[in-house]
Design goal:
This protein is an alpha/beta fold and 209 residues long. It is built from nine helices and eight strands. The protein folds into two domains: 137 residues, HAD superfamily/HAD-like (Rossmann fold, 3-Layer(aba) Sandwich), CATH 3.40.50.1000; 63 residues.
Length: 209
């Protein structure tokens, strides 16, 4: 078990950022010319992949890099408001005590992740890696695996979006999907994760399978 590696996504998996990201998206919508998200749409949009969401909101594809950069700056200003997913503090520390190597690979900024973890008294991660690769996250994960000389058969990537599961598959590593984040169980099931869990408490058992 001590040789096993758990790599976590951040937004929606560890940090409860779903509604905060929706708020940021709506703030930026008028400036960048795409649709806002109504309160009664939030839940049903969890069934859509990131690409489907972009199409639904008519987000100008060429403006996506600028939108993401702007969103990350706003996110940083409000980082102290962000809550931890309920139950994750104890689960993460339990996994650490069990001897797993644990890290984060996220499209959020490293300084945001570090600040959040400090705010919530979480000091157990062996590495934190930020990537700008929204559609090709697998490149960043594979690069990290090579740099760390990890055995791919011992690595599990844990995320809350369909693109996380797709990235894990492209890397040749095990995928574990959590249903409390951005994508719904329905959407996640469509991309066939190796493991799917519904509560943080299930993680400790699920990663041993």
């Amino acid at each position: 078990m001590a040789d096993d590696i758990l790599i976590f996504d951040f937004d929606g998996t560890i940090a409860d950022t779903h509604h905060y990201i929706v708020r940021i998206s709506n703030i930026l919508a008028p400036e960048y010319g795409y649709k806002t998200i109504a309160d009664n749409e939030i839940e049903q949009l969890r069934d859509k992949s990131a690409r489907e969401m972009i199409s639904h909101l008519s987000v100008p594809v060429l403006k996506i890099p600028a939108i993401l950069a702007h969103a990350k700056r706003i996110f940083h200003d409000g980082i102290d408001e962000i809550k931890l997913i309920a139950g994750m503090h104890d689960v993460l520390h339990d996994l650490h005590r069990l001897g797993y190597t644990m890290g984060i690979v996220s499209s959020n900024m490293e300084k945001n992740i570090i600040r959040f973890l400090q705010n919530h008294d979480i000091h157990i991660f062996d590495f934190i890696h930020s990537t700008t690769k929204i559609w090709s996250k697998h490149h960043s994960i594979s690069k990290l695996i090579r740099a760390k000389k990890f055995d791919r058969t011992a690595v599990t990537y844990i995320g809350d979006e369909t693109r996380d599961i797709t990235a894990a598959r492209k890397c040749g590593i095990r995928s574990l999907a959590v249903t409390w984040g951005y994508n719904s169980e329905k959407a996640l099931s469509c991309v066939n994760p190796d493991i799917l869990v519904h509560t943080p408490a299930e993680l400790t058992v699920a990663v041993k399978i």
